């Protein structure tokens, strides 16, 4: 069967893809199976987490997950890429906290099925997310974790870790997007969040 020649997000959203703000579509208009890239630069206005979440966040460093520091007005560069031989969209995020070495957060996103995608970090631990378009914004809602261990696929519910994640990315103008990411636990309340604004710098594609 011929591979689906559409961006990962378009596969999940279907007809709703065309309803996204133009800047959001431009951010995700990268097709696995092609050599393409997109760069964004911006600032995280605030990165914060609850004190009780710190052990989970520190443990998450083994998987290269989340961001282990708090901060305000943190410069961030995001490089998204797709490759000819990989069925995913790759992320390379560089956070520049004052007084610290740059912190790099890498992951890859794959279409799982239907409206669901999965974002994997190290050791093949992934967070499953349901996608929707709301008033031109791209909205992610987490649906537990998926750990691929060879032939075994282990599902882990949100509440066993930091809680349910919700990400909203909306277009500000043709070149700017704003991001709001919050994780809330049913018992502990808000455990992690960041928000920021980014400008699309360039894109490159090879047929």
What is the CATH H-level superfamily? Calycin beta-barrel core domain
Largest sheet: 10 strands, antiparallel, barrel
Mean pLDDT, to the nearest integer, reads: 93
Q: Count of helices? A: 3
What form results from the Cα inertia axes? globular
User: What is the CATH-assigned architecture?
Assistant: Beta Barrel
* Order of strands across the main sheet: 1-2-3-4-5-6-7-9-10-11
Task: Return residue spans where pLDDT drops below 50 for at least 5 consecutive residues.
Answer: none
Our estimate of the beta-strand percent is over 45%
Number of domains: 1
Helix fraction? under 10%
- How many beta-strand runs? 11
Structural class: mainly beta
**Distance N terminus to C terminus?**
21 Å
How would you describe what is shown here?
By secondary structure, this protein is mainly β. Helices cover 10% and strands 56% of the residues. The protein has three helices and eleven strands. Strands 1-2-3-4-5-6-7-9-10-11 form a ten-stranded antiparallel β-barrel. It is globular and about 40 Å long. The model has no long low-confidence stretch (mean pLDDT 93).
Brief digest:
The chain is mainly beta. Helices cover 10% and strands 56% of the residues.
């Amino acid at each position: 069967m011929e591979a689906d020649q559409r961006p990962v997000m378009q596969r999940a959203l279907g007809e709703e893809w065309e309803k996204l703000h133009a800047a959001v579509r431009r951010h995700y208009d990268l097709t696995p199976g092609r050599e393409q890239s997109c760069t964004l630069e911006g600032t995280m206005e605030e990165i914060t987490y609850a004190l009780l979440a710190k052990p989970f966040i520190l443990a998450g460093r083994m998987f290269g997950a989340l961001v282990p520091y708090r901060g305000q007005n943190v410069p961030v560069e995001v490089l998204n890429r797709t490759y000819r031989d990989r069925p995913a969209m790759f992320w390379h995020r560089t956070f520049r906290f004052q007084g610290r070495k740059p912190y790099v957060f890498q992951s890859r996103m794959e279409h799982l099925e239907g409206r669901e995608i999965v974002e994997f970090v190290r050791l093949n631990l992934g967070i499953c997310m349901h996608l929707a378009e709301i008033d031109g914004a791209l909205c992610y809602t987490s649906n537990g974790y998926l750990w691929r261990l060879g032939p075994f696929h282990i599902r882990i519910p949100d509440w066993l870790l930091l809680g349910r994640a919700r990400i909203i990315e909306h277009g500000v103008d043709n070149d700017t997007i704003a991001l709001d990411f919050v994780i809330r636990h049913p018992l502990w309340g808000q455990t992690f969040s960041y928000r920021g604004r980014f400008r699309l710098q360039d894109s490159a594609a090879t047929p």
